[in-house]
Amino acid sequence: MLRLVDKLTVRTRLWVLLGAGALGLFLLLVLALQEERALLLQDRQAKTRDLTETACGLLEHFHKLAGEGKLTRPMGILRNLGQVMARTQTDGDLTREVPVDGDDEISAVTRSFNQLLGSFRRSMHDVLDHLEHHQDCEGHQGHRGPDEAVGAEYRHRGCASR
């Protein structure tokens, strides 16, 4: 084997050395990537296990509360709140509110939600009034002639400032 190496030129020897080094680095990279993949998989499994244990603990807690009769009222309020939110989202119905009785956190959230719906109702009413007023003003612009009743209504609605 030494005779074979002795017969190679310096340039060829350098290329063989570079190729062997590159092959070694490639093998190290493959091994490192496999190790990293195994670590990521272990981490994901641990997180999934922790999340599952937390969810099971919460379910056990809520099941215990439901068994003791402590969960009925809050769940009913949350169910009503969810129904009103769904109806508002799909139908645009801002007239229905969730009934509130109590002074706990869920009642406070429900009151805030009802106030938000009221604010939306008032805003929509204001926008519709403004649009109606604007349409009335545009409709009366062409009638600024001898018809005093139309002109009086036009001025009364605040359209004369145009």
Task: Walk me through the structure.
The chain has 162 residues and is an all-alpha fold. The chain has a domain at 1-52. The protein is 80% helix and 0% strand. The protein has five helices and no strands. The protein has helices at residues 2-7, 10-67, 72-91, 105-140, 148-156. Helix 3 (72-91) runs parallel beside helix 4. The radius of gyration is 38 Å and the shape is elongated. Residues 143-157 have low confidence and may be disordered.
Summarize the structure.
This protein has five helices and no strands. The protein has helices at 2-7, 10-67, 72-91, 105-140, 148-156.
Share of residues in helices: over 70%
What's the gyration radius in Å? 38 Å
Q: Note the beta-strand portion.
A: under 5%
What can be said about the biggest beta sheet?
none
Q: What structural class is derived from the secondary structure elements?
A: mainly alpha
Distance between the termini: 104 Å
| Helix-strand pattern | HHHHH
Low-confidence stretches: 143-157
The rough form would be described as elongated
- Total strands: 0
The number of helical runs is 5
> What number is the mean pLDDT?
76
Keywords:
162 residues; mainly alpha; elongated
Write the layout of secondary structure elements.
Blueprint: H1 2-7, H2 10-67, H3 72-91, H4 105-140, H5 148-156
Helix pairs in contact: 3-4
